[in-house]
Amino acid sequence: MDLQYALELIGTFFFAISGALALQGKEADWFAAAFTGFLTAIGGGTLRDVLLGSYPLVWIGDINFLYAIILGVIVTFILYGFVSRLKRTFMLFDTVGIAFFTILGVEKALSVGVRPEIAAIMGMFTAIMGGVIRDTLTNELPVIFRKEIYATACLAGAICYLSLRLFEIDRNVNLLISIGVIVVIRLLAVKFRLSLPKLK
Amino acid sequence: MDLQYALELIGTFFFAISGALALQGKEADWFAAAFTGFLTAIGGGTLRDVLLGSYPLVWIGDINFLYAIILGVIVTFILYGFVSRLKRTFMLFDTVGIAFFTILGVEKALSVGVRPEIAAIMGMFTAIMGGVIRDTLTNELPVIFRKEIYATACLAGAICYLSLRLFEIDRNVNLLISIGVIVVIRLLAVKFRLSLPKLK
Amino acid sequence: MDLQYALELIGTFFFAISGALALQGKEADWFAAAFTGFLTAIGGGTLRDVLLGSYPLVWIGDINFLYAIILGVIVTFILYGFVSRLKRTFMLFDTVGIAFFTILGVEKALSVGVRPEIAAIMGMFTAIMGGVIRDTLTNELPVIFRKEIYATACLAGAICYLSLRLFEIDRNVNLLISIGVIVVIRLLAVKFRLSLPKLK
Question: Can you tell me where the transmembrane regions are (chains A, B, C) (predicted)?
């Protein structure tokens, strides 16, 4: 499916940018930014496939993912001052990106025969673990621990997808609805500054 | 062996609680607590099996482990103020838990044909790496680096098990003795505040 | 090739020392130093092989690597005050070590059939990821993010090796040249305090 493949590459490109921007304000050099962009982009899918024992890893088997990452890093470097100010735009891309990667991750997990509960976790991992690795490397408490409903939105979308699948809804329809669920939950959370209750 | 299986699930349940409690005092939400509980519970065994190339991972192949984790997280949430005060009780459960997981980890490693030295390391990893992942995620110096004899006790128990195995001691007897070695070393260390020498 | 095998063991030995020294000044005990030495020594190669799905891992299949690590840790403990002052000497060993591991990592990746671009990344990972894991565990911003040209030198050497390989240069000649490229870039960078531009 060509559209899906294009979206995967575009998502990888944006994840690379988000990682390459993560070291702003730290004493780090350009290599560190590129390296962090790379790990952020591959982290979630790589963890999912290593846990599932599914080889070769996507970015090792298909070189286009590496090129998408390199392009993302180069764009970040050239337009550094510019892209680092586009916070709002990035939030939008990020939201669509995590929504899309969640559902792809669920499908990938189902395709190797795991149970739906595990597939839901793998979907969420695909979307968020790149960011968790990025934050751990750069010595931050992972942003998913702090910010408005994020990973929870991915989990909700994954569960939505798996539920509709039980009713044998058409895959493309299901994809649209489930991605929509994630995007809507996330955007509402940002708009109204919703977050889960904090620990005492 | 039904008792062993039950103990594995119970150990997973307690590891999930210990992880879910780890973010106390940090600016984190309930999702972060659940997520950390999950990674703490699966971390050690998952690392062991990924290093050994032993698939499917235990919690992916058997859904009951996921349910044990979810239960642990829910119990933590409901009884939050209560369980977070039970430090002493938890230390006891934790001690029995790491002892048990160490020996199971050793056996699992031996079952895929590695040498005893490697099996000892894998046993220790099974017991402690969930906690190391938990502490790294939450930006702490791993607690095993600081506290009274802990990982060392696991390593001692693993070596004890492997030594007795050489003499073809009955497995159940060996299990009891080796788990006992870990528990006794750990409890003595806590009681008398023993620790290995600090670095200068 | 006996020389190569000896060099691999020696490199592992020195990586273990560098890891065992990493906790100086932190509140950590001797076990923590040994543990960090172990993870530093195996980290890069292990990550490479897990990503490639290449089992068994080197140090699991060949016990001599574990012995080299244990020896490195013991030497560190016995000569602690002494080796911790040998910063300059270590920098030299470290430079030769990462150069050598980079090229071995590239060859290992090529041997399982990945593309050269991926092999270059795997070579760099082999050399640097042990240190990244060490720094993440000990709560530091990875040193490769901060210090003089380091990972970049590895990447340059990997690309050099892969380029010369295209021209079917003799492997041993290529090995020498590519290792030399890494060593020279790194030493010049240290000598003249060269680093990549910092992020704004």
Answer: 6-23, 30-51, 63-83, 118-137, 149-167, 173-190
- For position C165, what pLDDT does the model report? 95
Minimal CA separation from C146 to chain A, in Å: 5
pLDDT per position as a tens digit, B22-76: 877 777 788 888 999 999 999 999 999 999 999 999 999 999 999 999 999 999 8
Question: Is the separation of the CB atoms in B19 and B134 below 8 Å?
Answer: yes
CB contact under 8 A, B28 and A196: no
Q: What is the ipTM of this complex?
A: 0.89
Q: State mean pLDDT over C123-145.
A: 86
User: Residue B88: how many CB atoms within 10 A of its CB?
Assistant: 8
Nearest 5°: the CA angle C183, C188, C189 is: 100
Inter-chain contact B117–C24, Cβ cutoff 8 Å? no
pLDDT of residue A110: 95
On the question of a cis peptide bond just before residue C56, with omega within 30 degrees of 0, the verdict is: yes
Please provide the distance, in angstroms rounded to a whole number, between the alpha carbons at the two ends of chain B: 47
Region C86-99 average pLDDT = 80
CA distance C181 to B183: 53
Chain C neighbors of B114, CB-CB under 8 A:
56, 60
Structure-token match 């490769």, residue found: C144
Residues of chain B contacting residue C23, judged by C-beta atoms under 8 Å apart? 145, 199
8 Å CB contact of A66 and C136: no
Which of A47, A136, A194, A199 is the best residue to mutate to test the B interface, defined by the most B CB atoms within 10 Å of its own CB?
A199
Task: Using CB atoms, pick whichever of B50, B144, B200 lies closest to residue C50.
Answer: B50
